[in-house]
Amino acid sequence: MSHNVKTLGVLGAGQMGGGIAQVAAMAGLSVKVFDSFPGSIERCKGVHAKSLGKLVEKGKISKDAADAAVGRIGFVDKLENLAGCDWVVEAVVEDVKVKKDLLGKLAAMYPDEGVVLATNTSSISITELATAAGKTAGRVVGMHFFNPVPLMQLVEVIPGLQTSAGVVERTMALATAMGKTPLRANDRAGFISNRVLMPMINEAFYAWMEGVAEPEAIDGIMKLGCNFPMGPLRLADFIGLDTCVHIMNVLAEGLNNDRYRACPLLKQLVIAGRLGDKSGRGVFEYPVK
Ligand code: 3HC
Q1: Atom 20 of ligand 1, residue of closest alpha carbon
Q2: Contact 122 CB / ligand 1 (< 6 Å)
Q3: Quick one: 147 and 256 in the same domain?
Q4: Do 33 and 138 reside in the same domain of the chain?
Q5: Is 72 helix (H, G, I), strand (E, B) or coil?
Q6: Ligand 1: which of 47, 54, 202 to mutate, most ligand atoms within 8 Å of CB?
Q7: Are residues 99 and 117 in contact, defined by beta-carbon separation less than 8 angstroms?
Q8: Which residue's CA lies nearest to atom 38 of ligand 1?
């Protein structure tokens, strides 16, 4: 089945939305990115320039292809200016209310059911988010990308209870056309990726809190002994410690099991403002960019 997408709308110009926009443009789609947060559009353009520059430097794409990709991405700071898309992926903050509000507005802006409303949520129920589209809930689907989007191979595709079979097939086709490998998971909290990854990261914080080993050793053991590209604590900083806590909360509540409660030390670091790469310090320290 073909995905039938010419223009992709992306909600959110952050780490994930910006990455999704970049890979879509590299795959030849026209892209419109919406973000109303001051400075986010300029920041996103800078991230695109840096990432595409790296890919050119490494001979992964030509300079002409990188320039053409940049030329295919437009930015808007008002949602009503996101008209004319035939597929929209939302990649805004992991907050059910914010996501449902935006999906409801999108459903009203795009009465044509053929326009798929995809969500890049990392763990929130697709079935619940889909209710925001009312009678057209069948066109809402989970399309979960991984950070850094230009380098990570996977798109986790998650149908909600209402999602139509045709929309799932089109999502698989679009992810493939974007150069990714789509794999399907069902709609349970955390899907597969975060249900397996986050408890492991959480356990690394428990091991540190209990003094089993220092952070450098915990990460070194998992890198050298298990061939992880990043240790679990470094990866937690990369993802954002606040996001890790949030995902653990979603797992604990959604799977109804206290074994998914966030580690007290992880929560404490977040309270102290140590959020990881984005705040300059999490488990480890990072130079201010
Ligand atoms: N675009 C282009 N190039 C990039 C890039 C990007 N966005 N990000 C990094 N690179 C480049 C670097 O500049 C570097 O180039 P260089 O070799 O010329 O210096 C090259 O990629 C390799 O990067 P690094 O040297 O920094 O380090 P690594 O070799 O470790 O590779 C990595 C980086 C691909 C991020 C690797 O460490 C990795 O795969 N880490 C695990 C990432 C992961 O698990 N992501 C999933 C997170 S979970 C998630 O997203 C789900 C959510 O719901 C929470």
Answers
A1: 54
A2: yes
A3: no
A4: yes
A5: coil
A6: 54
A7: no
A8: 229
